[in-house]
Design a protein that fits this description.
Layout (H helix, E strand, L loop, with lengths): L16 H8 L5 H11 L6 H11 L9 E5 L19 H11 L4 E6 L4 H8 L5 E4 L4 E2 L7 E2 L8 H14 L4 E4 L3 E5 L5 H19 L4 E6 L2 E6 L4 H11 L4 E5 L6 H4 L7
Parallel strand pairs: 1-2, 1-10, 2-3
Antiparallel strand pairs: 3-4, 4-5, 6-7, 7-9, 8-9
């Protein structure tokens, strides 16, 4: 059977939740969809748009065979927080993930930019496949973390003073050092002041990363510097090489998830 990959459009709003749950209730996924659409994708579109897409795309297409769920974390399963460490999963999210991972037909991967320790703390007790730092690290249930590509962190000592300079200049900004990346968060900072300094920092980082194997990633009120050549799609490709899936559901909220959406098997 050919796999099916459905990219859930962020341009729709799930006002028609009763219909949505009824269509998907047969495989006990209603709580997951309810949470994602009702709490995360409120973008002000008309409810009949969502209902039309739902009837034409999802209804009747969910396979009873092997399923792969590729779920982003921040902005998708949980909302954003001024301090990322405080954006922990709710009891509802954990309950739904436990239900999903408890079905032997399902492989549930949390494909996140978070570091390994945080994902281990949040989901260590569940039978999930966490992917950390935008695809750098992957861990199968019951195994140790492994890298999807050999990377170097020798550049970090040179970059940290630059980020610290801008952190000192922008109250509310903070630095998050990960195993293979450094993130600069400014969600808590004054928006007008941040707008000026973010552009200035981008120019500085562009100069710093020129002729290097580094890339700059801009997310929602965050800038991240990391090694190039590895992304969320890299980890997803590794998962797709190991098994054939009848149903693939990638869910994400920003451009870093586009690499996931572009990784369906050739048969799709």
């Amino acid at each position: 059977m050919a796999s099916r990959t459905f990219v859930l459009p962020t341009s729709f709003v799930a006002h028609d939740l009763a219909q949505f749950r009824e269509m998907l209730g047969a495989i006990s996924l209603e709580s997951l969809y309810y949470h994602i659409f009702d709490a995360r994708l409120r973008l002000g579109r008309e409810e009949n748009d969502f209902s039309r897409w739902l009837r034409g795309t999802v209804a009747g297409r969910i396979s009873p065979g092997r399923r792969l769920f590729l779920l982003d974390y921040d902005g998708t399963l949980v909302g954003f927080h001024e301090r990322p460490r405080l954006a922990s999963p709710t009891s509802e999210v954990l309950r739904v993930l436990e239900c999903l991972s408890g079905d032997r037909r399902n492989t549930v991967a949390i494909v996140s930019g978070r570091d390994r320790d945080t994902l281990g703390e949040f989901f260590g007790g569940l039978g999930l496949t966490p992917v950390a730092e935008h695809g750098v690290w992957l861990r199968d249930p019951g195994t140790e973390w492994r890298t999807t590509k050999k990377i170097s962190s020798s550049w970090k000592p040179d970059l940290l003073p630059i980020l610290q300079l801008y952190t000192d200049r922008l109250p509310g900004a903070l630095i998050e050092e990960k195993g293979a990346a450094i993130a600069w968060h400014y969600r808590k900072a004054d928006p007008e002041q941040a707008q000026v300094l973010v552009g200035e920092l981008m120019d500085h980082l562009t100069s710093f990363t020129a002729n290097t194997d580094l890339q700059i990633m801009q997310g929602n009120k965050v800038m991240e510097i990391r090694s190039a050549g590895v992304n969320k799609g890299t980890a997803v490709a590794a998962l797709l090489q190991r098994a054939m899936y009848d149903f693939i559901l990638p869910v994400g909220d920003d451009w870093t998830d586009e690499d996931v959406f572009q990784m369906p098997p050739p048969s799709v």
